[in-house]
Amino acid sequence: MEGTHPNAEERQAHAFMNFARLLPDEYAKHPFGEHKYGKYGPQTTYAEGCGEPAPQPMWMWEDANELARFHAYGCSECDGKCKGHDTCTDDCHLFGGSCGFGDRADAFRFEKGKRMASEGLCGANMCLTSGHCGAIFEKDRTLVGFGVAMNRRTEQVGNGMTNVYVDGDAPEKYPIVSAAHFDLKVKVHKTDFNRIVNDKNAGASFAFMVVYFSQINPALRGRVWFKGQYHEMYKEAGTNKKGVWISYLQNPNRCEPYFFLFEAQDGTKYRMPQNPKYFFGTAWMPYVFEKDVDRPICDENHYFVREDGSAVANSGPGDKSFAVQPDSNYLYLLSRMFIEET
After folding, report:
1. Is 170 helix (H, G, I), strand (E, B) or coil?
2. Please, what is the end-to-end C-alpha distance for the chain in angstroms?
3. Which residues, 6+ apart, have CB-to-CB distance to 163 below 8 Å?
4. Cα torsion for 150, 154, 155, 157, to the nearest 10°?
5. Residues pairing with 269 in the sheet
6. Strand partners, 181
7. b/e map of 108-145 (b: 16 or more CB within 10 Å)?
8. Fewest Cβ atoms closer than 10 Å to its Cβ: which of 159, 205, 228, 237?
9. Residue-wise pLDDT tens digits, 14-61
10. How many CB atoms are closer than 10 A to CB 39?
């Protein structure tokens, strides 16, 4: 998670995809998947294995993340032509004049032994009923990249989402596979909103979600640190070895740092972000059509705690150009405490 830091929308998509990939039957019946994200059925005959549980999830890979975001952004702002998987004609010169996916993928592949196998755009149904379903459920794949980019000219998320599927084994299979926050007003269909928010969660529409996967070290407890304290997470689907964990809370009234902490059967503690100097932030992609969503404007995708005790948003080691956060000392002490405990 120390590379390009997948943005909030990319992490959300990654979490929903792995929920669908690992637990397709539960996903299709869950409010997250039942209406808005794709009742799959007999029509999913595009590829072998569509809708069948995969033996493992797909972890986010930095190179694919950058490639997918480049394409999403390039097409959203393209003055020329941007057709299918091709690079925007304005940018083909960056890849030796080639507009093809293969040359663009090679330029972003920095690690040997990996191959950007295919690219697909997932719609609202998370590809469970589309021609990209086979890529979602490809049983041998363990890496993926998501790209969601801001179109600065229209001030909204441009040209949907781009996914890049990768051939090659994941270098690290960390048990916390996907970790995200999202607003149920956006991610749950109105058919289910009252049932899941008002009836079940006392009006709480803000959700934290983790996909946990480990066949040898099941999760015993999951928590999210948010607004100065830990909140319990509960297994919403699956098992302790392969499950989706959720915590429903009230929407924050300002930008807030957070992180996830899971305790496994052998006593190991798993944190996300993995490096205790990093915290996620409650950033939002500014969809202009979300007129009924009441939440603060927040661009702080993550925070980094520096050695001098200060904390900066959307930055990392060595970058001194960003303003210091008001919670710096608190985040520094929390970071040090976690390091000492583990």
Report:
1. coil
2. 19
3. 13, 17, 68, 119, 120, 121, 122, 127, 132, 135, 144, 145, 146, 147
4. -40
5. 263
6. 208
7. bbeeeebebbbbbbbeebbbbbbebbbbbbbeebbbbb
8. 228
9. 898 899 889 988 887 887 876 644 444 444 444 566 778 999 999 988
10. 15
Q: In angstroms, rounded to a whole number, what is the distance separating the alpha carbons of residues 246 and 223?
A: 9
Q: How many residues does the chain have?
A: 342
- Alpha-carbon dihedral 273, 274, 277, 281, rounded to 10 degrees: 0
The residue with tokens 């496994």 is: 264
Cβ(269)–Cβ(262) under 8 Å?
A: yes
* Predicted model pTM: 0.85
User: Which amino acid would we find at residue 198?
Assistant: N
User: DSSP readout, 66-114?
Assistant: HHHHHHHHHHHT-SS---TTSPPTTTGGGGTT--SHHHHHHHH--STT-
**Closest by CA position to 301, among listed 314, 286, 317:** 314
How many whole angstroms separate alpha carbon 149 and alpha carbon 307? 31
Q: Tell me how far apart the alpha carbons of residues 259 and 277 are, in angstroms, rounded to a whole number.
A: 11
128 dihedral zone (left: phi>0; alpha: psi -120 to 50; beta) = alpha
Distance separating alpha carbons of residues 147 and 218, to the nearest angstrom: 30
CB 209 within 8 Å of CB 15: yes
Extended strands (E) in the chain = 59-60, 115-120, 143-147, 150-151, 156-157, 162-167, 176-183, 206-213, 219-226, 229-238, 242-249, 257-264, 269-272, 278-281, 302-305, 311-313
Cβ atoms within 10 Å of 342's Cβ, excluding its own: 11
Please provide residue 212's backbone torsions phi and psi, each rounded to the nearest 5 degrees: -110, 135
Contact partners, residue 217, CB within 8 Å, separation at least 6 = 175, 264, 265, 266, 268
